[in-house]
Every structure is written in structure tokens, then in C-alpha cells.
């Protein structure tokens, strides 16, 4: 049974593999139908059977058989992809589904985002240390964190500075529509295991650091039936998630 405590990527996940998985899922193909094709594509960079299995497991969870708690999110992602299949949309959908299907990845993204906001760059050693403080000082926690950050680098969320193991923010991705922003708000709430958050936090949430949300307004949430906006004072609005 898949749960929110399942760990993150067991290997580096390339954007090209996520693109292929998304395209297959959007075409209505099941994981079993495309498993061999994905394995062949993965084998070009990772020939070991165990590496292929781990990568397939990640692609399956993100795009084919997500946990029950984010199945509606995945279904809406496929609908949004049919409306707009641009590189920016693909990135946004991969990001949202990855942090929702694997909340551990959301923790890595949030930690990386906080460091980038504080000092404009993030050292891998600092990311690992903070994640170990949250999830335990175990070797596999550091290993999975490194795979996640390596995946972010391949996706174009960050760039590597001249010094190895130091990361900087890449050019942020901008959503194409209010529907995409509302979808991303749901992904963030699911990832961070929240049923509500202040609307003002959405645009600056560190888990969404590679996505530019600086000009959003509350009306955009109306496109997502699972979100509700509630005003609790004259100047405080909260996003509520109905699960």
C-alpha cells in the first residue's frame, strides 16, 4: 500500500523519462503496456536491472499509479497536459506530481528553496544535514536526498555553480493559466500534508521555488473544485483543501 511516508526517488530521474511517462499516461496507456518501452529508454543511461526497476517504480508512482490521496491531482494533470503540452507545462506538472506523490521529495524541495531564498545558493551538504534532522541520520536519507537534488538539476530547476555541490536557482518557470496555478496549490498542500494555508504563502512557498507565482490573486483558485478560499479577517485569506 502506498503511503505519504514512502521515501523519494531511489535513483536520479531524468526529465526525458518523466516526459515519456506523462505522454503515455495522457494517451491512456497503462504502466504494464509501456513498461518494456520505458525500460529500453532508461537502459540507454542505466543498464543495470536494479537501477531500471527503481526508475520504473518512480515513473509508475508519479504518472501511472499514484497514491490514492493524489489520484484526482494526477487526473487533472493529464487534463491540463492535453490543453497545453509545452515544456513549461511539463515541468510544472512533473514538479507538482513528484512532490505530491513523494512528500519526501517535497521536503527536499522545501529545504532547497529555503536555502536559496536565504543565501541565493545552496550547498548539498547543508541540504542533506537539514533533511537528516527531519527524517533521521541514516545513510539512505542522504543518498535519496542526493538523487532528488540530482533530478532537480536535470529538470532545470537549479543550476550547479562553479564549485561542485553548490546549487543556484535557474530561470523560474511561469504557469500558462490560472488552472495550472490552482492545480499547483493543491499539489503543495498535499505534499506538505496540510488541509489549509494562508493564501499569501502560496506565492512564496519554498517547495515551489522554481515556479514564478508572483502575480497571482485569489480568484484563480475557483478553477479547482477541491480548493476553497475562506476569509478569516479583514486581511487574511486561507486556502482550504477538501479531500
Written account of the structure:
- It is a single chain.
- With 243 residues, the chain is mainly α.
- The protein folds into two domains: 1-171; 178-241.
- 55% of the residues lie in helices and 9% in strands.
- The protein contains ten helices and six strands; from the N terminus they run ααααααβααββαβαββ.
- The strands form two sheets. It has a three-stranded antiparallel β-sheet. A three-stranded antiparallel β-sheet has the order 4-6-5.
- A hairpin with a 5-residue loop joins β2 (158-160) and β3 (166-169).
- The model has no long low-confidence stretch (mean pLDDT 92).
- Strand tally: 6
* Overall SS class: mainly alpha
Determine the N-to-C terminus distance: 19 Å
Number of helices: 10
Shape: globular
Percent of residues in helices comes to 40-55%
Q: Indicate the proportion of strand residues.
A: 5-15%
- What is the element string, with H for helices and E for strands? HHHHHHEHHEEHEHEE
List the domain count as a whole number: 2
Mean pLDDT: 92
Uncertain runs are none
The description of the largest β-sheet is:
3 strands, antiparallel
- What is the radius of gyration computed over CA atoms, rounded to a whole number of angstroms? 17 Å
Give the neighbour order of strands across the main sheet: 1-3-2
